[in-house]
Design brief:
The chain has helices at 7-16, 19-26, 30-44, 60-85, 100-117, 134-137, 169-175, 219-227, 237-246, 275-287; strands at residues 49-51, 56-58, 92-98, 121-127, 141-145, 154-161, 163-167, 190-191, 196-201, 204-209, 214-215, 233-236, 250-251, 261-267. By secondary structure, the chain is α/β, with parallel strands linked by helices. The strands form five sheets. A five-stranded mixed β-sheet has the order 4-3-5-14-6, covered by helices on one side. Strands 12-7-13 form a three-stranded antiparallel β-sheet. It is elongated, with a radius of gyration of 28 Å.
């Protein structure tokens, strides 16, 4: 018994609500579609469709069967496509979106090297701090940083970023360095888009509300302000690590540093990844 017999015809009729349109989609005769559906109903012992002169619709049993069969057909197509793509050369255009500063400082140098190594591929990259819709923008991958919201996307972890709390030697000489989280309230903090900072102590994660003379949604501007001694800042490593390394900034409250945050590649669920997307994901995971 061929358990797949009639499955393609059944799904086509269920989705087109027409034996004629199903036959056109499958490029077979309407009579053949009808025979396969009849055979399937006899084998299953249930009626799958209501038929009238005007329309074809699923019965309750047909709806249940369709919900189970559709993923099976998709999986079969994906399996066949993955075999055909196994030896294929990745080609075409990749569309990627990522946050601006992370994209400029971390991502684009890696992507530029990727293009050098894979000259048959092209890249379209939108750097924006706006969370872009992958379907609407036709993106293959979206880079997300930090904590993920509940999104109907697949998350592929590429690496981590670390948040540093730091200040300049000038600020520390004039105002001292806090030793506890409670002492932050007596200091001038450089405020970004959020009015709290993340820390971690023996009780777990802590959110500490902060205040100061300067608020700005630019990490680069806050880094400059910190270097000038205007206050304490908390920023990801790609903003401040070079200045921590050369000594122009010093880490504050290292014993309370929060856990590292994830760097993620997000993509749409449900289908086998194309070779070009798979090879880009592997490359980013290896080089970021």
């Amino acid at each position: 018994m061929n358990e797949w017999q009639g499955l393609s015809e059944f799904i086509a009729v269920a989705e087109t609500e027409s034996f004629t349109r199903a036959s056109q989609q499958l490029k077979i005769s309407t009579a053949q579609v009808s025979r396969q559906i009849q055979w399937l109903e006899e084998r299953l012992g249930v009626k799958l469709f209501y038929r009238t002169t005007r329309r074809v619709s699923l019965t309750e049993a047909g709806q249940l069967y369709y919900q189970s069969c559709r993923p099976l057909q998709d999986a079969l197509h994906d399996a066949e496509r993955s075999l055909s793509q196994l030896q294929s050369i990745p080609q075409g255009t990749l569309r990627v979106t990522a946050p601006v500063t992370y994209g400029e400082r971390q991502l684009m140098p890696v992507l530029n090297r990727f293009l050098q190594e894979y000259p048959q591929l092209s890249l379209s990259c939108d750097l924006t701090n706006k969370k872009m819709d992958l379907v609407e923008g036709n993106y293959d991958i979206a880079i997300r940083l930090g904590r993920l919201e509940n999104e109907d996307l697949v998350a592929h972890r590429l690496g981590t970023r670390r948040l540093y709390t730091c200040a300049s030697a000038t600020y520390i000489d004039h105002h001292g360095s806090p030793d506890t989280l409670s002492e932050l309230s007596r200091h001038s903090c450089l405020v970004g888009t959020l009015d709290y900072w993340r820390f971690r102590d023996s009780r777990g994660e802590r959110m500490i509300r902060i205040h100061g003379r300067l608020r700005c949604n630019s990490g680069a501007a806050l880094t400059d302000a910190a270097q000038r001694g205007l206050g304490i800042v908390q920023l990801p490593d790609y903003y401040v690590k070079p200045y921590l390394d050369d000594g122009s900034l010093r880490e504050i409250l290292p014993n309370f540093a929060p856990a590292d945050e994830g760097i993620w590649a997000m993509y749409l669920p449900g289908r086998q990844l194309s070779p070009k997307v798979r090879i880009l994901l592997d490359y980013l995971a290896a080089h970021l």
